């Protein structure tokens, strides 16, 4: 029996690249349709910025795809992401700004990601000091991986458009379950959680978030939401949380250490 070479396998899998680009361009088409309903002054500029970001994602979409490697686990469905208009001005007060971020993120989740909110894959919450956007790891990464999927890139594009309109200190927390890492590339869950949070930070900065205002943190399995006593609990603990500060600061370093 003839053995299939690795190059043949990679060749067969290259259709994924064209398919990913097609989906991204299809998304751009729907953004254009959405523009027909825009009435307010300045909407044309917002539309242009959204389309520029979408077409730029075609180039970026090559990054998360591992050609020729097997896909682990079942693919996760993600809802169609529509363009979200960002506000023209930032509220003058610190309290008004933080309330606006929470309100806009909540509206985004309610209108664009209803199914994901219902399954617990995405959630927005607020405390005295932070606005938190929680994303389950299965929504962003393959099993045991730290490279963002194409769907994750599309989702973070929308989130970045909001965050860069409301500059605040952002801490991106990576969390895992308590199972040992089984990988030739990773030593421990400390590596996995840190690299996952760094991947999200890298994407948000690439999309326009100020790098001085954002930082990744890896907590490994040391900050669980619930006890790791079954698979459902472990799935809840595998997550990335964007914590957006309500306090004013010029940069994340001074915020943390001064």
How would you sum up this structure, described in words?
By secondary structure, the protein is an alpha+beta fold. Helices cover 47% and strands 12% of the residues. It has helices spanning 6-13, 15-35, 43-60, 94-112, 114-118, 137-140, 150-163, 189-206, 231-237, 252-257; strands spanning 122-126, 130-136, 170-175, 214-218, 239-245. A 5-stranded mixed beta sheet has the order 1-2-5-3-4. Strand 1 (122-126) and strand 2 (130-136) form a beta hairpin. It is globular, with a radius of gyration of 19 Å.
Query: Approximately how much helix is present in the residues?
Result: 40-55%
Per DSSP E runs of 2 or more residues, the count of β-strands stands at 5
Major sheet: arrangement of strands: 1-2-5-3-4
Cα-atom Rg, whole angstroms? 19 Å
Low-confidence stretches: 60-75, 78-93
Number of helices: 10
Distance separating the two termini? 68 Å
Order of helices and strands: HHHHHEEHHEHEHEH
* Overall pLDDT metric: 78
> Roughly what fraction of the amino acids lie in strands?
5-15%
- Silhouette: globular
The major pleated sheet works out as: 5 strands, mixed
Structural class: alpha+beta
Task: Please give the structural blueprint.
Elements: H1 6-13, H2 15-35, H3 43-60, H4 94-112, H5 114-118, E1 122-126, E2 130-136, H6 137-140, H7 150-163, E3 170-175, H8 189-206, E4 214-218, H9 231-237, E5 239-245, H10 252-257
Parallel strand pairs: 3-4
Antiparallel strand pairs: 1-2, 2-5, 3-5
Helix pairs in contact: 2-3, 7-8
């Amino acid at each position: 029996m003839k053995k299939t070479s690795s190059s043949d396998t990679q060749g067969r899998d290259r259709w994924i690249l064209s398919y990913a680009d097609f989906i991204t361009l299809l998304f751009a088409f729907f953004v254009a349709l959405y523009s027909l309903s825009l009435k307010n002054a300045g909407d044309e500029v917002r539309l242009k910025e959204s389309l520029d970001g979408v077409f730029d994602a075609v180039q970026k979409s090559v990054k998360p795809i591992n050609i020729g490697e097997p896909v682990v686990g079942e693919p996760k469905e993600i809802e169609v992401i529509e363009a979200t208009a960002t506000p023209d001005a930032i509220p003058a007060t610190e309290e008004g700004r933080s309330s606006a971020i929470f309100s806009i993120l909540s509206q985004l989740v309610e209108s664009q990601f209803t199914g994901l909110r219902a399954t617990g894959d995405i959630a927005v919450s607020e405390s005295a000091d932070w606005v938190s956007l929680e994303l389950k790891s299965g929504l962003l990464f393959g099993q045991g991986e730290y490279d963002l999927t194409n769907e994750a890139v599309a989702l973070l594009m929308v989130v970045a458009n909001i965050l860069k309109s409301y500059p605040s200190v952002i801490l991106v927390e990576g969390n895992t379950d308590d199972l040992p890492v089984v990988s030739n590339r990773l030593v421990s869950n400390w590596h996995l959680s840190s690299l996952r949070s760094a991947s999200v930070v890298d994407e948000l900065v690439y999309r326009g978030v100020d790098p001085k205002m954002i930082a990744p943190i890896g907590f490994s399995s040391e900050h669980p939401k619930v006890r790791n006593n079954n698979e459902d609990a472990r799935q809840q603990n595998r997550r990335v949380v964007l914590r957006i500060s309500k306090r004013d600061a010029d940069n994340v370093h001074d915020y943390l250490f001064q």
